[in-house]
Design brief:
The protein is of the alpha+beta class. The protein is about 50% helix and about 15% strand. The chain has three domains: about 5-130, Orthogonal Bundle (Butyryl-Coa Dehydrogenase, subunit A, domain 1), CATH 1.10.540.10; about 130-240, Butyryl-CoA Dehydrogenase, subunit A, domain 2 (Beta Barrel); about 245-395, Butyryl-CoA Dehydrogenase, subunit A, domain 3, CATH 1.20.140. The chain has helices spanning about 5-15, 15-40, 50-55, 75-85, 90-110, 115-125, 240-280, 290-320, 325-350, 360-370, 375-385; strands spanning about 130-135, 150-155, 155-170, 175-180, 190-200, 205-210, 220-230, 235, 280, 285. Strands 1-4-5-8 form a four-stranded mixed sheet. A four-stranded antiparallel sheet has the order 2-3-7-6, with helices on one face. Helix 4 (about 75-85) runs parallel beside helix 7 and helix 7 packs antiparallel against helix 10 (about 360-370). The longest helix is centred in the middle third of the chain and has 37 residues, at about 240-280. The radius of gyration is 21 Å and the shape is globular.
C-alpha cells in the first residue's frame, strides 16, 4: 500500500466505508497502473480495453447509477473519490470512467425518460457501453448556449448537421449526446436540444484528434454529423431545454476536474517530500533549505484546504443544496493552485523533473486541461462573479 499524504486528510473528511472504497481504487492504481504507465505512454497507447474492463468489474462506471439499473447506488462523492484515487497516478486513466459517468451517465440520470434509462443505464453501469458528450465545437467553446450544430425538423424526424470536437471517450462511445440548435429565434438558453445519437448511425463520422500533448492515453475525438436522422424519442430532456441539461451536467463534471487537480498536488507533494530528503547538495539533503521547505508546506496547505472545500461541495451536490457558482469557484481555484505549485515543485527538484519517469512532467501537462476542461477558467469567472454583481449581470463579458 502506497502511503499518500492525501489519505491523512480524506480519512478525516469521509466515513469509513467511503474511505475503504477510495483505498481499494487507490491500491489498484498503485499496484496495477503505476508499474505499466510509463511503457503505455512511451508507446503512444490509449487506455486499454483490459483496464476499462477491470474498472467495469470494480463498479467504477456505475457508481451513481441506482441499484435497480445495475449500479452501485452512490453519488458524486464516490465518483470524485475514484478520480482522486486514479488521478494520483494518471489523469488519463481517471477521466476515462470519470467522463463516462459525469458526462455520460449523469445527463441520463438528470433528464432521461424511464424508457431511455432502462435502455442504456445497465450497460453504462457495467462499462459495456459509454456515452460521449457532444458540447464543444470548432467554433464554439465557452459560448455553449449557441451551438453551431443544427437540428432541423423534417416531419416527425430531426436532421443533425455539424461537428463536435474535444469529445472525451469518443473512441469507445456507443452513443454521443449531441447538443444542437433547434430554435434559432428562441431566447438565450432555450433554443437548443440534446439528442442521444448512436455513433454507428448513418452520417455519424468519428476521428481521433491527433497531436494532443495532454491526457495522452485518453481518447479525444471529433464527431461529424452529416445529415444524421434522429427521432423525438431520442431527445434527452425537453425540447429547446438542452442548455439546462448541459449546465446541470457540467456542475458535477467541474467538481470531478477539481479533484484531478488535487490528485496532481497530492502526487507532487509525496514525490517531492521523498526526493528532497534523498537529494544531497552542499553537504546535505536539500530538504534542509528554507525555500524548499516553503514549497513543501505550501503544497500541503493547498491540499488540505482545497480537499476540505471540494468534499464539502460534493456533499452539497449530492444533497442538491450546492449553489451553482460553487462548482465553478472550486474548479477555478483547485486548477490554478495546482498548476502554480506543480511548477514550484519541479523547480526545486531540478532537471530530473523533466524526465517522464519522475512523473511530475505528466501532471504538469495534464493540469492544463483542468484549467480549460468543463469550461475555461477565464470564461467561468464571469459566471461566478455575476452572483456578486447582480445589478449589472446582463452587461458582464
Amino acid at each position: 500500500m502506497t502511503k499518500r499524504r492525501m489519505d491523512h486528510y480524506l480519512e478525516q473528511l469521509i466515513d469509513g466505508e467511503r474511505f475503504e472504497f477510495y483505498r481499494v481504487v487507490a491500491d489498484y492504481a498503485d499496484e496495477q497502473i503505476a508499474p505499466q504507465l510509463l511503457g503505455w505512454e512511451r508507446s503512444g497507447e490509449l487506455v486499454s480495453d483490459d483496464v476499462i474492463a477491470q474498472l467495469g468489474q470494480m463498479g467504477i462506471f456505475g457508481l451513481p447509477v441506482p441499484e435497480e439499473f445495475g449500479g452501485q447506488g452512490g453519488g458524486l462523492t464516490e465518483v470524485v473519490l475514484s478520480g482522486l484515487a486514479l488521478g494520483y497516478q494518471s489523469h488519463s486513466i481517471a477521466i476515462t470512467p470519470g467522463a463516462a459517468v459525469s458526462l455520460g451517465v449523469n445527463p441520463l440520470l438528470l433528464a432521461g425518460s424511464e424508457e431511455q434509462k432502462n435502455a442504456h443505464l445497465p450497460d453504462l453501469a457495467s462499462g459495456k457501453r459509454m456515452f460521449a458528450f457532444g458540447l464543444s465545437e470548432p467554433g464554439r467553446g465557452s459560448d455553449a448556449a449557441n451551438p453551431e450544430v443544427v437540428a432541423t425538423r423534417q416531419g416527425d424526424r430531426w436532421v443533425l448537421r455539424g461537428e463536435k470536437c474535444w469529445s472525451t471517450n469518443a473512441r469507445w462511445a456507443s452513443h454521443v449526446i449531441v447538443h444542437a440548435l433547434t430554435d434559432p429565434k428562441g431566447r438565450n438558453g432555450h433554443r437548443s436540444t440534446c439528442f442521444i445519437v448512436p455513433k454507428d448511425r448513418e452520417g455519424v463520422h468519428y476521428q481521433e484528434m491527433a497531436g494532443k500533448t495532454v491526457w495522452k492515453m485518453s481518447s479525444t475525438g471529433s464527431v461529424t454529423l452529416d445529415g444524421v436522422e434522429t427521432s423525438s424519442d431520442e431527445i434527452l430532456g425537453e425540447l429547446n431545454e438542452g442548455f439546462k441539461v448541459m449546465v446541470g451536467t457540467l456542475n458535477g463534471g467541474r467538481l470531478f476536474i477539481a479533484g484531478l487537480a488535487l490528485a496532481s498536488i497530492a502526487f507532487a507533494l509525496d514525490r517531492v517530500c521523498g526526493y528532497v530528503q534523498e537529494r544531497e547538495q552542499f553537504g546535505g539533503p536539500i530538504a534542509r533549505f528554507q525555500r524548499v521547505q516553503d514549497v513543501v508546506l505550501e503544497m500541503d496547505i493547498a491540499l488540505e484546504r482545497n480537499l476540505t472545500w471540494l468534499i464539502q461541495q460534493v456533499r452539497r451536490y449530492d444533497a442538491s443544496t450546492m449553489e451553482r457558482e460553487q462548482a465553478v469557484k472550486v474548479k477555478i481555484d483547485c486548477s490554478r493552485v495546482a498548476s502554480h505549485l506543480l511548477i514550484e515543485a519541479m523547480e526545486i527538484c531540478g532537471g530530473i523533473a523533466a524526465l517522464d519517469e519522475f512523473g511530475l512532467s505528466r501532471h504538469h501537462n495534464d493540469l492544463f486541461v483542468t484549467r480549460v476542461g468543463e469550461g475555461s477558467n477565464r470564461a467561468l469567472m464571469t459566471q461566478a462573479v455575476a452572483v456578486l454583481l447582480p445589478d449589472i449581470r446582463g452587461q458582464l463579458h
